[in-house]
Amino acid sequence: MRLKQDWHEARHWVSGLAVAAALVANSAQATSLADALIGAYGHSGLIDQNRALLRAADEDVAIAAARLKTIVNWSGDITRQLGSSASSSTNGLSTSIAQTTVSLGITASLQLFDGGADRSRIEATKETVLATRAALQNVEQLVLLRAASAYFNVIRQQEFVSLSQNNLRLLQQEFRAAQDRFDVGEVTRTDVSLAEAAVAQARSNLAGAERNLIQAQAEFTNVVGRAPGRLARLPRLPQVETSVPRAQSVAVRTHPEMAQAQHQVAAADLLAIAAGQDMNPTVSLEGRAAVTEEFSSSDSQTVGTVGLNVTGPIYRGGALFATERRAFANRDAARGSLHTVRHDVQQDVVDAISNLQAARASLAASERQIRAARVAFQGVREEATLGARTTLDVLDAEQDLLDAETNRISAQADQYIAAYSVLESMGLLTASRLRLPVQQYDPTEYYNLVKDSPAKLSRQGRQLDQIIRNLTPDD
Question: Which among 188, 244, 198, 127 is positioned nearest to 396, based on CA atoms?
C-alpha cells in the first residue's frame, strides 16, 4: 500500500516518459527505446536469478511456519534375537533362543508454547521476503537503466562513425585541393603533407569510431538479447524532477534500496526478540501409537501414549546469551546500514541531477560552438582560396568544427542517460512505472501458495509443482 501511495505521489515525474511516446511514434521496422527495454526485461538472467532468490526467501516463511504445526513421524524396527539360556527350571540345560520382533510406530508432536520465539522468527522471515522483493525491484531498475544506456550509446557511436566518415570525405577533398594548388604553385609541399597527414588521422579516427560502435552494439546485444539493427529516432526526453530536495524526498520514500534496508532492520529487530525468547520454557503435546509383534510366540502388543513435555534451558555453556548478543549486534549493523543507504540514495539523486544539468548546459554550449565553428571554418576556407590563409589554418578550423559536433553528440547522449539515471535514483525506473507492455512478475503469487507450507499432494502442492515446472528454464 505504501508503494502504491508513493507511485501516485511520483507519477507526475514519469507521465512524460519517452517510452510511452516511442511505443506509438516509432515504426515496427526500427528498434525503439521501448523495444530495447522490453527485450532487456525479458532477457535478463539477473532478473531471473533474483526472482529465484525471492522464491527461496518465500520458502523460508513456509519452513519457519511449519514449526508451529503438528509434526508426525513414523518409525519401524525389526529385531532378531539369537542365543541360549539356562535356568533351574530346565535343570541347567541350555535352550536356544530365536525370536523375531517387529515394531511399527507413529509419533505426533505439537508445540503449544515457546515464549513466542518461533512466531518472532516467522515474522522476521516475512520481513526478509519483503526485503528480497525490494532487491528484485532494484535489480529491475539497474537492468532497465543499463538497457537505456546501451541504446543511447549505440546511437552515439553510430553518429560518431557518420561524423568521422563525413570528416574523412571533407579532408580528402582538402587534400585533393591542396595537390591541385601545389601543381599550379599556389602552395608548398608542406601544405600538401599537412593535408595528407590530416587524412591519415581521419582514417585512424574512423577506425576507432567503428571499433567503439562494434563494442556498443555488443553491449546492446548482451543486455537486450538481440542485435540493435536499425535504431529509431531519439524519443522525447522524459520529464524528470530537477529540484534536488523534492527528488530526494521521493527517493527516500520509493527507492527499493531504502525499502530493502528498512525491512532488513525490521527482520533484525524480530530476530533479536526471538533470541531473548529462546530462554523461555517450551511446552509440547506428544502422542505415540505403536504395534509390536513377536513372531516366535505370536504375541502382539498395541500401545498408545499421550503426554505433555515441558523443557527449558538451565545452562548451555553461555550459548544462549552469546546468541542474543549476536542478534543485538546484527540489529545495530542493520540500523547502521539503513543510515548509510539513506545518505547514499540522497547522494545518488544529487549526482544524477547534476549530471543532467551539466549535460544540458554542455548541449546548449556545443550548439553555439557548432554555429560559431561552422562560420569560422567557412570563412577560413574562403580566405585560403584567396591566399590569405594556409592549409594548416583550414585544417585547424575543420578540427574545431569536428570537436564541436562531437561534443554535441556526446552531450545529447549524456542528457538522455542522465535523465533516466534521475528516474533510477528516485526509484521510478521500473517496468510498471514505465508502463512497459510486458508480462510482469507477480511476487505475491508464489508466496501466497507456499506461506502456509502446503503438503506436496495437496491441491496447493500440485499448483506449486506446475508453477515450478513453468519457471524451470529449458537450457
Answer: 198
Query: So what's the pLDDT on residue 169?
Result: 87
pLDDT in tens, 351-408: 999 999 999 999 999 888 888 888 888 888 787 777 777 777 777 888 888 888 888 8
Residue 274: count of CB within 10 angstroms of its CB: 23
Q: What is the CA radius of gyration of the chain?
A: 37
pLDDT digits (tens, 9 = 90+) for 406-462: 888 989 999 999 999 999 999 999 999 999 999 888 888 888 888 887 776 677 777
* Nearest of 95, 249, 113, 187 to residue 390 by alpha carbon: 187
Q: How far lies 270's CA from each of 48, 133, 330, 458, in Å?
A: 29, 19, 11, 31
What is the spatial distance between Cα 20 and Cα 22, in angstroms, rounded to a whole number? Answer: 5
Q: Where are the domains of the chain?
A: 2-79+97-434
| 2-79+97-434: CATH class | mainly alpha
Residue with cell 546468541: 323
| Per-position b or e across 46-76, b if 16+ CB within 10 A of its CB | ebeebbeebbebbbbbbebbeeeeeeeeeee
The secondary structure element, H or E, covering residue 86 is strand 71-86
Phi, psi of 454 (to 5 degrees): -70, 155
Q: How many CB atoms lie within 10 A of CB 38?
A: 21
pLDDT digits (tens, 9 = 90+) for 126-160: 999 999 999 999 999 999 999 999 999 999 999 89
pLDDT value of residue 227: 92
Question: DSSP strand E in 275-373: where?
Answer: 282-294, 299-311
- The per-residue pLDDT for range 257-305, each reduced to its tens digit, is 999 999 999 999 999 999 999 899 999 999 999 998 887 676 778 889 9
Greatest Cα pair distance, the chain, in angstroms, is 145
Element (H, E) at 105: strand 94-113
Residues in CB range of 67: below 8 A, 6 or more apart: 111, 118
Q: Which three cell numbers stand for residue 448?
A: 501466497
Sign for the pseudo-dihedral over CA of 128, 129, 130, 132: positive
Q: 415 with 365: CB under 8 angstroms?
A: no
The pTM for the full model equals 0.83
Helices (H) and strands (E) counted in the chain, each on its own, are 13, 4
